[in-house]
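pipeline/complex-builder :: batch 7 item 3
reading input block
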Amino acid sequence: MVSKPHGGKLVRRIVAERTRERILSEQGEYPHVAIDHGRAIDLENIAHGVYSPLKGFLTSDDFQGVLDEMRLTNDLPWTIPIVLDVKKPNFDEGDAVLLYYGDLPIARMHVEEIYTYEKRELAVKVFKTEDINHPGVARVMEMGDYLVGGEIELLNEVPNPFAKYTLRPVETRVLFKELGWKTIVAFQTRNVPHLGHEYVQKAALTFVDGLFVNPVLGRKKKGDYKDEVIIKAYEALFKHYYPKDAATLATVRYEMRYAGPREAIHHAIMRKNMGATHFIVGRDHAGVGDYYGPYEAWDTFDNFPDLGITPMFIREAFYCKKCGGMVNAKICPHSEEFHVHISGTKLRKMIMAGEQPPEYMMRPEVYEVVRSFENPFVE
Amino acid sequence: MHFEPEVVKVEELVAIKIPKSLHERIKERIEGTGFESVDEYVTYVLREVLANLEEEEEEVFSEEEEEKVKERLRALGYLD
């Protein structure tokens, strides 16, 4: 049996077609609130149950609970504040407002609460730093001074160029059931796969029925691989090296926060809602720079005996010349001189220079895909 | 970088009575572990037990909804 959704029930907040038509025909009667791309994607994730049990943006009690205890007021684990910020509200508590991304009405929101917060507190508690060089902190410092909490109903989605690769929790749950998988390990990624990733995924798959590779598509940092490159590279890897009946690939739209250990828990909850029973937590999960210890996320899972998804802690894989294969520090007895670490940065440099990485670093079929793009990286 | 000590607001707590002998056993058991109090240990264990019990209930989709989803999955090539 796949994982039960977080909180027990998969949230769905998509309005029925007739209601949608009515709301859209009455657009002018609602206060308009402009939102950015990340909030539009959060709305989609709330509406499709990726963020179950959330039915909307956090109200102040839940917000404070998430900051202080990493739990919602109903005691459920929740580590990343999903909030809607505004500079100055043009509406009151109790109002219904329409949330717009550009000209597109994305959702109707029932404003339960408007409240203020401390940006520094949010940054330090979630990101463990107030350094504005941290991309998550930089985003917090740009946020409006007010937060708005309340339930939402989805009206439209931001156009998705990768819609055919994007599966919602309802779909992944049916898919796993149809495939006959009872135990499913999910792998979160925002990179083109190298041999280290493949090793980690296959090591985990050894213990469960199916592998669910779930790349995150969305706003990225300069130098990250473009979304289409990641998808095509994984398609090539799956075609040539993965068992068809035991591995599947689908994307999820999500704005990375780079909150390290807290975000690792959040990623696990998202995959639990998609039906995964296990979640791979590797080295420096959701980290950036050196703000978090390489395996700090592993310890954070100790706080959540009630998470409802089993973390699989798998060490960084590297190639050992003496062993003649991919290994990790736990299983290889040889000294560092025999080890070749597969660094993403090193691979990027090789790719940029038009140099094909050796086969023990990257599959040739994957490299062929990457080099077929004029510029595979975000500028 | 210097940080001021973090002020953590603690959620409201309630008292639960358990036999004194059990309290003593737990106290002995948590010595040298990461648990700093019997309260902390009991909270941890109860959360784990409740989560396991709640896992046993199964989610049900309507047949119609499930068929619609299967159609999309077939169209996308996920199912034969």
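note: Chain B has three helices and no strands.
queue -> next item
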